[in-house]
Amino acid sequence: MISHYNLIIVPVDGSEGSARAAAFAGDLARATNSPIQLLHVYFPSSSEVMGMAQLSREQLEVINQESAAAAFAKAREAIGDAEGLTIEDKAVWGEPREEIVAAAEENDALIVMGRRGLGRVQKLILGSVSDAVLRTVRRPVTLVG
User: Fold this and answer.
1) Which domains does the chain have, with CATH numbers?
2) Is the four-CA dihedral 68, 42, 21, 107 of positive or negative sign?
């Protein structure tokens, strides 16, 4: 089968929305023979950053990897049987919209993401990550409800 996408990027945060997006991306990847990148963007709140001030770089990386591992596990469970699929896990620090958009544009990728994630109260004021991605990315996006 011909691949339609260089890559399908699925931003994951451990929420039900990102799990549904991962399941959809798995089906799409099977149909198009496209690889998947599960992308976890660790973006601590300002209070979390204050609590991390005395931690070493290694300790911060452990926190990031633990957060990412839980999100990746939930996404892989939602995808189900991964036989024949190429799935890469990628964990980064940063502002979610910026990291998702940069990854998609760098890789000529399709983004498949949930409409609602594990938001904070501030996201109600500032708008959701999916909305911000839709407004700024120049790559195709599929939102999964």
Assistant:
1) 14-144 (3.40.50.620)
2) negative
The contacts of residue 85 (CB under 8 Å, 6+ apart) are 26, 29, 30, 35, 36, 79
Query: What are the φ/ψ torsions at residue 114 (nearest 5 degrees)?
Result: -75, 155
- 40 contacts 72 by C-beta, under 8 angstroms: yes
- Write the pLDDT tens digit of every residue in 85-142: 999 999 998 899 999 999 999 999 999 999 865 554 444 444 488 899 999 999 999 9
Residue type, 129: V
* Cβ atoms 136, 95 nearer than 8 A: no
